[in-house]
């Protein structure tokens, strides 16, 4: 029985969803075109099994157009040779380069120099830059000529073809800057078209990023199969992708949805793949050829073969109004053999000449992507607009049944989190480096200049390692295990290089002795990390060496209340701030995982609140002190398995955990925990007295063999809906701690089939006692999860869920159709409505920063520190995936399961905010933009970009007063300093220039939520302390195109809400 279809009229700004009898759903998108959704989304179950949507109605339309339209508007076909080069997947980046990519590019130059009308396109700058460094001068010259002629077109300009689900906006933009800056400096080229054909679904953020970078046409490919059919049926394959917050359409970009499943020759010429397969003329001895019988074109068969392929081209042309067809000619790593070029060119040249010379009302040529968009714009001046995104991607071409690609949103969370850690450290390193280098130059400190300029190559390496990992087979976790290991090594090197730059620049800015300030030897790390495979281990301050200090760098351009932590092995200390005032602090026991997760009362965590100025470096001294036992603020510790009882001199008061429920409280709220499970059950707002249910649960979905893996998520239909990963029998300890800085509840579980290496789970819920700070307004949660041995917990997807009374359903729907909001790359929010027929796998969406549910009274938000999936399967529920393990390959090319899980620390903030009492929407209509509150936005910044800490022991040698990088005060609350990135010297790319790209992000916020103001208002008159700026000029996002006259001051900028604005600063 077909599921019901809402009889909506498709009008501007209204949501359209289609449901198909085979259990399919279309993503939420908006078109500025009227049509009847009831007529548009009929059942298409019959074509799904056939894997081709072409039907009799489309055939009749094509035949009529060919007869009536072609004489007036001839078919125009652009054949576009290409080679899809993944910078890591089944081989490492370097492995692919050495075995395929360098030959592809060498052949491209040589063969295109020979074949004067042949074209080629390229996307991955990571490969192109590596090739360019090694190629000889003659090929370089020929390559420059091909680029200048426009026959070799460089598309997008990103360092990689970025993923669009898991990548945070910072890394998405940074990899594009790295690639486009290299292109500009090397070839004086800025791409105008984008080719993004292999990410597993497409988001709404990347179109905006491309448009801001100067790109005016883009191609997408992997979208839900039902959308493919709809675009074809409605002839809407070329559209303007619109940002829902952009009232004027200023940021719209022309997008072409490639009408078929895949970019290979088999899937590119027309709707019938087996016909297209016969026009792949590659025939290399020793290589598998899917087309077993290559038929070379000759005088005897050219007419029959030309008309056969022209029929496919014509059918493709009938799917769009303008009759212009783009035909990609290539596949993964094609053209690595020089004979391929000859085989494809010679056969297609015969076909092209025959068709062009015949009476077919058709013109065919080799061309580039920009050629396609140019032809389309010649024939079409008006395009319908679309807003939204294309998640969840689903295919049917593998088995003729829907497969949902929502597993990779969570696959290998350890690597996803490591990417975000590198982002944070890279951003801080960029800001510190830009300021320090130009300060040294303006002070004419030759030794410091030489030292800092030499660090630029390290900064470039870190940028490129991070950029490489944004590749759609890297951060997704969908490469072979040894390839993921290689990515891990690169990320680890990037992290260490960033820390090296931070340490050296911090010492340069704070050390009193100019002769000693550039070597970084006087500062140490506050943690150790032996390899990328491990989490960082804290380093205790060695008080035997004498008094010590902590340098804290606030990387945000607003004042920040930072909870600062360090470790000691003595309790006889005091902390002194820059004003020589003793700082209140809290001492806590730590977990000793080597002894079976026992509390350690000798290795102590010290936590204190640090009020930091924007972009400032603050020194806190840690001194030996005699602590009055009677006046000491002790931390109360209640536990099931307490170590030996505390001594009078201990900073801890240890006691057994009383039976019953647990309560945590601060100035803002009261949390209640279940008396049995010790998990969160409710939150009460102390200011209003309102109590909200907030039942926290952990469970897992059992997944299907061979249909759930690195890419796909599919629950096992033969098992119950959920399986328990940890039970009450696995509960090893419960610890409650309360002190002057924070109070928390921690539960510890161990379980698994392998008792020698069991799985472990440490779950902590914390409230901060910072009465005037934002951190007291949220609930901090930390989960340390480890599957343990590879035999433990196979084929499950673990989730954390909040079950509440929030009625987050559509106003005209039942409780079975909840709505939630997920962020897109940390940039904007997208509404998600449940469709029951496609299961949890089709209703899980990617988040990188935030998800929330709301009704007329409350909004529940979950903030995350790395990419994962989120869902709201039932009204009042909001869940995020924690980790997943699959012992099976899911038949999408990787060839193995995912069993290399690592212990991963997941960090969250949770907020419950009251809606305005009078005008609370049910939930946000499509005509209104849904945005996070200022509180949530600020907490997310703190989660993504925490302060940077370093240790030292020569306190007198470092300046005591806080050092601010800003002469002016903080930026306004909604203006985020996205980055301050030193640009490479165009003539010597290994050297830094005197210019930096400053990127500002004006983040949107919901002003109606009743949360109190979370930061003081600042000013846009940003100036740097002790630094003179020669010029500031607004540019394109990536800094490759100047856009306006020079600015006298930054406050002249008109930064619209939600937008990114780049300014090139010359020092």
From TrEMBL:
Its EC number is 3.2.1.-. Residues 1-23 are annotated as: Disordered. Binds 1 zinc ion per subunit. One of its GO terms (biological process) is mannose metabolic process. One of its GO terms (cellular component) is Golgi membrane. Residues 403-491 form the Glycoside hydrolase family 38 central domain. It catalyses: N(4)-{beta-D-GlcNAc-(1->2)-alpha-D-Man-(1->3)-[alpha-D-Man-(1->3)-[alpha-D-Man-(1->6)]-alpha-D-Man-(1->6)]-beta-D-Man-(1->4)-beta-D-GlcNAc-(1->4)-beta-D-GlcNAc}-L-asparaginyl-[protein] + 2 H2O = 2 alpha-D-mannopyranose + an N(4)-{beta-D-GlcNAc-(1->2)-alpha-D-Man-(1->3)-[alpha-D-Man-(1->6)]-beta-D-Man-(1->4)-beta-D-GlcNAc-(1->4)-beta-D-GlcNAc}-L-asparaginyl-[protein]. Its cofactor is Zn(2+). Keywords: Glycosidase, Hydrolase, Metal-binding, Zinc. GO terms for molecular function: carbohydrate binding; mannosyl-oligosaccharide 1,3-1,6-alpha-mannosidase activity; metal ion binding. Homodimer; disulfide-linked. Catalyzes the first committed step in the biosynthesis of complex N-glycans. It controls conversion of high mannose to complex N-glycans; the final hydrolytic step in the N-glycan maturation pathway. Belongs to the glycosyl hydrolase 38 family. This is Alpha-mannosidase. It comes from Tigriopus californicus.
């Amino acid at each position: 029985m077909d599921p019901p279809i809402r009889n909506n009229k498709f009008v501007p700004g209204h949501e359209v969803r289609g449901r198909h009898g085979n259990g399919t759903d279309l993503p939420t998108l908006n078109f500025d075109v009227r049509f009847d959704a009831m007529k548009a989304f009929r059942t298409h179950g019959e074509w799904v099994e056939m894997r081709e949507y072409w039907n009799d109605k489309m055939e009749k339309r094509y035949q009529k157009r060919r007869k009536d339209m072609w004489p007036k508007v001839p078919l125009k076909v652009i054949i576009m040779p290409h080679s899809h080069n993944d910078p890591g997947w089944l081989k490492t980046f370097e492995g692919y380069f050495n075995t395929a990519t360098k030959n592809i590019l060498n052949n491209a130059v040589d063969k295109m120099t020979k074949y004067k009308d042949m074209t080629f396109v390229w996307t991955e700058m990571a490969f192109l830059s590596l090739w360019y460094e090694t190629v000889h001068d003659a090929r370089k010259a020929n390559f420059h000529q091909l680029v200048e002629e426009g026959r070799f077109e460089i598309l997008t300009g990103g360092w990689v073809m970025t993923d669009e689900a898991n990548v945070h906006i910072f890394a998405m933009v940074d990899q594009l800057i790295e690639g486009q800056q290299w292109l500009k400096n090397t070839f004086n080229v800025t791409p105008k078209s984008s080719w993004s054909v292999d990410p597993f679904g497409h988001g709404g953020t990347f179109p905006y990023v491309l448009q801001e970078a100067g790109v005016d046409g883009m191609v997408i490919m992997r979208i839900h199969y039902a959308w493919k059919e709809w675009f074809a049926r409605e002839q809407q394959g070329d559209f303007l992708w619109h940002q829902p917050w952009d009232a004027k359409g200023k940021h719209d970009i022309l997008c072409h949805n490639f009408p078929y499943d895949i970019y290979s020759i088999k899937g590119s010429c027309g709707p019938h793949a087996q016909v297209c397969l016969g026009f792949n003329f590659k025939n290399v001895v020793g290589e598998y050829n899917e087309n077993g019988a290559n038929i070379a074109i000759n005088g005897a068969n050219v007419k029959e073969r030309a008309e056969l392929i022209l029929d496919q081209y014509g059918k493709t042309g009938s799917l769009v109004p303008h009759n212009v067809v783009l035909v990609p000619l290539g596949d993964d790593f094609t053209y690595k053999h020089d004979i391929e070029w000859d085989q494809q060119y010679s056969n297609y040249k015969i076909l092209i000449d025959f068709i062009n010379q015949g009476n077919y009302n058709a013109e065919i040529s080799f061309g580039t992507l920009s050629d396609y968009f140019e032809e389309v714009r010649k024939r079409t001046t008006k395009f319908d607009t679309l807003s939204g995104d294309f998640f969840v991607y689903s295919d049917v071409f593998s088995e003729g049944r829907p497969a949902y690609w929502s597993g990779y949103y969570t696959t290998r969370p350890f690597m996803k989190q490591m990417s975000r850690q590198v982002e944070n450290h890279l951003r801080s390193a960029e800001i510190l480096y830009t300021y320090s280098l130009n300060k040294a130059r303006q002070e004419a400190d030759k030794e410091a200049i030489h030292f800092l300029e030499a660090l630029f190559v390290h900064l470039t390496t870190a940028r490129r390692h991070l950029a490489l990992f944004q590749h759609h087979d890297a951060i997704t976790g969908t490469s072979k295990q040894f390839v993921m290991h290689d990515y891990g090594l690169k990320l680890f090197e990037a992290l260490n290089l960033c820390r090296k730059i931070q340490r050296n620049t911090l010492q340069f800015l704070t050390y009193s002795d100019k002769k000693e300030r550039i070597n970084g030897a006087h500062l140490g790390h506050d943690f150790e990390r032996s390899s990328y495979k491990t989490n960082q281990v804290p380093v205790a301050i060695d008080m035997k060496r004498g008094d010590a200090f902590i340098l804290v760098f606030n990387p945000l351009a607003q004042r920040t209340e930072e909870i600062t932590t360090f470790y000691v092995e003595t309790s006889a200390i005091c902390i002194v701030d820059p004003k020589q005032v003793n700082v209140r602090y809290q001492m806590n026991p730590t977990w000793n995982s080597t002894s079976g997760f026992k509390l350690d009362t000798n290795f102590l965590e010290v936590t204190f609140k640090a009020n930091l100025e924007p972009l400032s470096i603050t020194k806190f001294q840690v001194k030996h002190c005699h602590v009055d036992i009677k006046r000491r603020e002790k931390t109360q510790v209640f536990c099931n398995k307490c170590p030996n009882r505390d001594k009078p001199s201990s900073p801890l008061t240890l006691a057994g955990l009383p039976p019953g429920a647990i309560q945590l409280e601060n100035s803002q709220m009261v949390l209640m925990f279940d008396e049995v499970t010790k998990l969160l059950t409710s939150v009460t707002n102390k200011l209003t007295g309102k109590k909200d249910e907030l039942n926290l649960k952990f469970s897992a979905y059992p997944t299907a063999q061979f249909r759930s893996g690195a890419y796909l998520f599919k629950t096992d239909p033969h098992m119950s809906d959920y399986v328990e990963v940890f039970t009450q029998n696995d509960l090893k300890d419960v610890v409650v701690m309360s002190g002057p800085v924070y109070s928390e509840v921690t539960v510890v579980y161990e379980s698994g089939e392998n008792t020698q290496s069991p799985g472990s789970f440490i779950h902590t819920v914390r409230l901060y006692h910072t009465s005037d700070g934002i951190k007291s307004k949220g609930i901090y949660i930390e989960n340390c999860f480890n599957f343990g041995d590879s035999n433990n917990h196979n084929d499950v997807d673990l989730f954390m869920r909040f079950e509440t009374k929030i009625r987050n359903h559509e106003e005209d729907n039942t409780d079975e159709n909840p709505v939630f909001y997920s962020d897109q790359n940390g940039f904007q929010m997208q509404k998600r409505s449940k469709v029951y027929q496609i299961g949890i796998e089709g209703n899980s969406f990617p988040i990188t920063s935030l998800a929330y549910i709301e009704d007329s009274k409350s909004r529940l938000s979950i903030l995350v520190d790395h990419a994962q999936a989120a869902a709201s399967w039932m009204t009042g529920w909001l869940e995020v995936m924690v980790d997943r393990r699959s012992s099976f390959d899911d038949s999408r090319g990787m060839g193995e399961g995912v069993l290399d899980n690592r212990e991963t620390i997941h960090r969250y903030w949770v907020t419950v905010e009251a809606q305005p009492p009078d005008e609370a929407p049910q939930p946000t209509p499509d005509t209104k933009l849904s945005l996070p509150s200022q509180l949530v936005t600020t907490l997310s910044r703190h989660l993504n970009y925490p302060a940077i800490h370093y240790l030292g022991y020569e306190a007198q040698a470092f300046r005591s007063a806080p050092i601010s990088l800003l002469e002016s005060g903080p930026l306004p609350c909604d203006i985020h300093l996205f980055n301050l990135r030193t640009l490479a010297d165009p003539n010597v790319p290994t050297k830094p220039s005197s210019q930096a790209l400053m990127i500002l992000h004006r983040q949107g916020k919901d002003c109606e939520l009743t949360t109190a103001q979370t930061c003081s208002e600042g000013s846009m008159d940003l100036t740097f302390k002790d630094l003179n700026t020669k010029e500031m000029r607004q540019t394109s996002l990536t800094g490759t195109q100047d856009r306006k006259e020079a600015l006298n001051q930054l406050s002249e900028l008109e930064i619209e809400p939600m937008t990114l604005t780049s300014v090139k600063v010359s020092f």
